[in-house]
């Protein structure tokens, strides 16, 4: 049985940490430790952690605020596990999460790995809609953690596993990067000759944002980060990364051309209907979530696309 160290960076999220820790007490596989790294929070979660000291092997540390990358690196250095499991504090684990990780590693060895995310039944409507936008095949979400990948799998920091010795050898996350640090790390893992795997059964419930404007800003930063990563690793830019930018330009073009040729609006309407029908079906006929999912999908595509375009403009044209 492998011994795992679960590393959770936290910044002003005591309620979310409570939900995550409770889900860890329900795990069917119990050979693990938990490291909570409080990243200079003004609203600490120490009292929450204390409630779980008799239920989990848990350690709590407070460090000066420096961002999640530094907190993850700190946790890795003091961890004791053979494998590190890095989670975001706004995740909840199904009871079989660690069991799925252990089983998957027994079936297919991997130096680093990750799993998909989905919405928990308890999430509110907007959280479910945002989850749809981030995971649906009809947005860019389909490449992030489904059973079929369009390219090599890059583990993300909300649900990432890695051998501790590999983490230490690669010096962990780049603390100078504000966004895209997990893709940067995954790229270095792959370029270092290590294997990465997608474990579909090792999924998490990811709460994400609760407002579309917050979601827009999050994905906008992701679009900007993609250009920063392209400057650092030119060969990593794929056609799929450009699709949101193409979508933004295409939608604006359709709207302008539609003034002269109104039938062009039907193309946009067909896409809206596709999203609505698919999301409504996935959420068992909930029309309200279907409508919100359309809004969330457009928010995701426009946020990422405009961030990508703006960063590309600064890079290529403004130098």
TrEMBL record:
Enzyme class: transferase
GO molecular function: glycosyltransferase activity
NADP in keyword set: no
UniProt keyword Transferase present: yes
Domain Glycosyltransferase 2-like, residue spans: 5-169
A matching Pfam family: Glycos_transf_2
SUPFAM superfamilies xrefs: Nucleotide-diphospho-sugar transferases (SSF53448)
EC number(s) on file: 2.4.-.-
Alphabetical UniProt keywords: Glycosyltransferase, Membrane, Transferase, Transmembrane, Transmembrane helix
InterPro entries tied to this protein: Glyco_trans_2-like, Glycosyltransf_2, Nucleotide-diphossugar_trans
Protein name (Swiss-Prot/TrEMBL): Glycosyltransferase
Organism: Parabacteroides faecalis
């Amino acid at each position: 049985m492998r011994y795992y160290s679960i590393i959770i960076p936290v910044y002003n999220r005591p309620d979310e940490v409570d939900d995550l820790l409770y889900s860890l007490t329900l795990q069917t596989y119990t050979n693990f430790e938990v490291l909570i790294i409080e990243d200079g929070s003004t609203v600490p979660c120490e009292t929450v952690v204390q409630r779980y000291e008799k239920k989990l092997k848990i350690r709590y540390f407070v460090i000066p605020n420096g961002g999640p990358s530094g907190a993850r690196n700190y946790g890795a250095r003091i961890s004791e596990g053979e494998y590190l499991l890095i989670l975001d504090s706004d995740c909840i684990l199904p009871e079989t999460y660690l069991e799925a990780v252990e089983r998957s590693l027994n079936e297919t060895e991997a130096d680093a790995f990750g799993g998909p995310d989905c919405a928990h039944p308890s999430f509110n409507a907007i959280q479910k809609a945002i989850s749809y936008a981030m995971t649906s095949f009809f947005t860019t979400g389909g490449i992030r953690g489904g059973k079929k990948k369009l390219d090599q799998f890059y583990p993300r920091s909300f649900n990432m596993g890695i051998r501790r010795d590999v983490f230490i050898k690669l010096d962990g996350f780049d603390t100078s990067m504000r966004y895209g640090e997990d893709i940067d790390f995954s790229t270095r893992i792959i370029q270092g000759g290590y294997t990465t795997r997608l474990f579909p059964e090792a999924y998490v419930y990811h709460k994400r944002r609760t407002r579309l404007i917050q979601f827009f800003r999050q994905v906008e930063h992701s679009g900007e980060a993609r250009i920063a990563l392209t400057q650092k690793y030119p060969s990593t830019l794929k056609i799929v990364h450009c699709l949101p930018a193409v979508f933004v330009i295409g939608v604006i073009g359709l709207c302008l051309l539609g003034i002269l040729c109104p039938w062009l609006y039907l193309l946009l309407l067909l896409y809206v209907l596709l999203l609505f029908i698919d999301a409504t079906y996935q959420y068992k006929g909930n029309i309200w979530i279907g409508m919100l999912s359309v809004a969330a999908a457009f928010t995701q595509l426009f946020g990422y696309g405009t961030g990508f375009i703006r960063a590309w403009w600064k890079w290529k044209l403004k130098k």
